[in-house]
Amino acid sequence: MTLNIGVIGTGAIGRDHIRRLSFALSGARVVAVNDINAEQARDVVTQLGIEAEVYASGQELIEAGNVQAVLVTSWGPSHEAFVLAAIAAGKPVFCEKPLAVTAEGCRRIVDAEIAAGRRLVQVGFMRPFDQGYRALKTVIDSGEIGAPLMLHCAHRNPHVSEAYGTGMAITDTLIHELDVLRWLIDDDYVSAQVVFPRATRHTHAQLRDPQIVLLETAKGVRIDVEVFVNCKYGYDIQCEVVGEEGIARLPEPSSVQLRSAARLSTGILMDWKDRFIDAYDVELQAFIKGVTDGQLTGPSAWNGYAAAVAGDACNLAQVSGRIEPIELPSRPAFYN
Ligand code: NAI
Ligand code: ISE
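Structure tokens for the assembled complex are given below, as produced in the milestone run.
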């Protein structure tokens, strides 16, 4: 069976996902696309040489008879309405992060999915599918470094657009750590604080950059995440887990070691598309398989909600300067 997918949002990641669905993965094809920039949507279809109809609105695409599953890759604030519409239409939906821009919005999706009676939503948290994070989790779960005590992490982007503000460091960027770290150490957050070091001269008036987010978990683990989105030198994701018996680090992406011009060096990637290329492939192949088998297994709407609850506290902490509590309700049995 070939799954017919409709994609809403043909920007950077929408286009990349359409490419992988059309040429890298198996079991699916893109039959419909939509973007508020219709010309761009048409260009993507033409440039990739796929046979997909361009729809005038996301809602029409969701309702189209030949669309069996939906990919939401539009801007964050539009996600909630599209995901709710897909659930209402009974169609499985893969939604890029964030699931919704507030925890309240994510909760409405969780409630709608539970009311629908079956899992229909997978969130685009790709890091749990990344080989490096999986290897790190295997080491932690093996007990070799003992119980985790502290995590030191960094999420660095070379640059961001003028439209990216201080709050987005949480909702757009840190949200990946908020999801993957609770999975990695099987724990939940209980508080968050945000501190701002000296700002880089490469930032702009609406963005305080860098930031350090300090999280505490239910088991007492302390986590620091540096979010630095104008670091210039590369796209760099770091994660070090300090345990009672040893330390484990997220592996670097493999790259050729170079001896030249009196230097020993390895390259650093510049783009998230390259850094997580395999993880994006695996997460979407899992979505296709889940829909085809009638059993979605990837990150759920509850994962999207849990990350957003922590994200809301971090956003609050950015403004208050205080340690803000994180209160995640217990997980409904539906998501066990
Ligand atoms: P982008 O700005 O390149 O593309 C977004 C597209 O959505 C634009 O073409 C825009 O015209 C379209 N759009 C906005 N509102 C719409 C609406 N109501 N209906 C139809 N189209 C609409 O942004 P990018 O980087 O592609 O990000 C899109 C989403 O994917 C964001 O939520 C972002 O956080 C997420 N993302 C996830 C990544 C990951 O690592 N998982 C990486 C990059 C983005
Ligand atoms: C972007 O939207 C992503 O999701 C990338 O993975 C992240 O590194 C970046 O900071 C976000 O802007």
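The pocket of ISE (ligand 2) is lined by residues 157, 172-173, 176, 272 (CB under 6 Å). The first strand starts at residue 3 and ends at 8. Further analysis is deferred to the final report.
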